[in-house]
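Justification of computing resources. Each target in the renewal requires a structure prediction run like the one illustrated here; the chain below, 291 residues long, is used simply to show the kind of job we budget for.
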Amino acid sequence: MASLLDMRRRIKSVKNTQQITKAMKMVAAAKLKRAQDRVTAARPFAQKMSDILGSLSAKIGDEFSHPLLDERGDERYLIVHVSADKGLCGGFNTNINKVAQNFIIENQSKEIEMIAVGRKGRDFFKRRGANITEEYVGLTNSGSANFADASEIAKNLIKTFTENENIDKVFLVYTEFKTVLSQKPIIEQLLPIPRTVTEEDTTATAQAEYIYEQTPAEIFGKLLPKQVETQVYKAMLESVASEQGSRMTAMDSASKNAGELIDSLTLNMNRIRQAAITKEIIEVVSGAAAL
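Resulting structure tokens:
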């Protein structure tokens, strides 16, 4: 049985841990508010750009050719995997890594390369021998994503795709922020940009007909790279918000568990102390009876 001193030391240790988890929860909550506001502001812009490009692509048809639109084969994939740089955020990194790993397993017949954005994803797939061609770590240590970083990643990605004929498709793997308690891992095709037009795009086009002054080549030449930059930036924002939401939830759960453990340890400590007091009383009474 543990001594009274051991129980007090353990209770003190758990209380110190609880203070840390409470502080981390508060920091994550503050960062989550900023990240959530940035995601909310970025989503309409990204959606509207996709709608405009979709409607314009439908009008032009398949006769127009652009390196970022042209379909290639279906044998060589490049995965852009977005994860966190830090841990202690529940199952956030585990879930996104598992989704990417399952995608690789399902496409074992393909030649797959990876660009890792985030330390946790990079370390996970390095240990499993994945072919990581580029890595970007430390971009979200401040709890936010920078458009300049996303633009650099997108420009390098476009250069790699257009100059390297060994890549047929590029997929973006990230976590979409739903609520504080709900985040959804997503795999979406980034390149070549799909020409398909959804029903929502058709409705939006019917409501507002756009007049384009430049030629299709000029419009696509400027907007398509911006579309890739926007999608990468949006994915990073979604990932940061999901990370902070998952961390806040995990630290809140850890604080509650620490509180329950403290109550349990305090109860055991009181029992040990009561047993020690009872033993001393019995010894005193026995000594007095012997006299």
